[in-house]
Amino acid sequence: MRLDLRRTLLGLIIAGAAGVALLPFACYGAGAALGPPRPTPSKAQVPPVVADALWARADGGRATRLEPISPLTMFKTAACSAEAHVFVDGRTELEREEDCRIYMPAMAGVELLSDAHVKAAQPQRGDFLNGLSRFSTTVWLTHSFTKDEFLSTFAERGIFGFGFRGVEAAARGYFGRSSGELTVPQAALIAAMAGTRLTDPWCNPAGAAGRRHNVLEKMRKNEAIDEQAFRDADMSELGVSDPPATHRPCVG
């Protein structure tokens, strides 16, 4: 009897472990079956300053490519994050966690692109089904897109606050100029607005400047800009043009 009980318990443990291991594959398959067609890469040219700002916003770090999501990269990231919470070496917890992004660089940006793609294709779907589609699309993108393809597609199809789809629309909406004419602080602000409408540069310029600061700081860490360029851009005015006609009046 004891032997049978042990075998039963062992079988349950093995089955549970197998279920956990297979769950991501099941979610991927379900998302692929229920989601929209896979996105095709854009061939649009992205100005270098815009590409650097978008890569910084995407948490790409100094990586030269997207790292495909796999059980191994997920394990490395999880282990690194756990270590960052345990060991103290004089840096902040956030700084230590940033080091973990080397295992899956640009995931923040890939997730934003996946979200924009799924919402555009299936705006009426529920959160659960869209969540499966976003997960599947995110994994697929990391295996299928190069860094340049990701940046081109993100620049063309990403949402940059207040209904601006694509960097070109955002550049004209925020600054009244084309994306090729953007300065470093302007490109950083547009990148900072990716995936959010919570910070309004017209009604909350201080909050927008804070988000821009984060992107500029990452650009400096990525060595896309030097220290002087960082300081000049960080201290510059937002310089946004008049809000669009559909923008609600600021309160307070």
Summarize the entry for a quick read.
The protein is an all-alpha fold.
How would you describe what is shown here?
- Mean pLDDT is 86; it is low at 17-21.
- The radius of gyration is 21 Å and the shape is globular.
- The longest helix is centred in the N-terminal third of the chain and has 33 residues, at 2-34.
- Helix 5 crosses helix 6, helix 8 (167-175) crosses helix 9 (184-192) and helix 9 (184-192) packs across helix 10.
- It has eleven helices and no strands.
- It starts with a helix and ends in a 17-residue tail after the last helix.
- It has helices at residues 2-34, 48-57, 71-86, 93-98, 107-121, 127-144, 147-157, 167-175, 184-192, 205-221, 227-235.
- By secondary structure, the protein is mostly helical.
- It has one domain (24-69, 104-235): Biosynthetic peptidoglycan transglycosylase-like (Penicillin binding protein transpeptidase fold, Orthogonal Bundle).
Give the helices and strands, then pairings.
Blueprint: H1 2-34, H2 48-57, H3 71-86, H4 93-98, H5 107-121, H6 127-144, H7 147-157, H8 167-175, H9 184-192, H10 205-221, H11 227-235
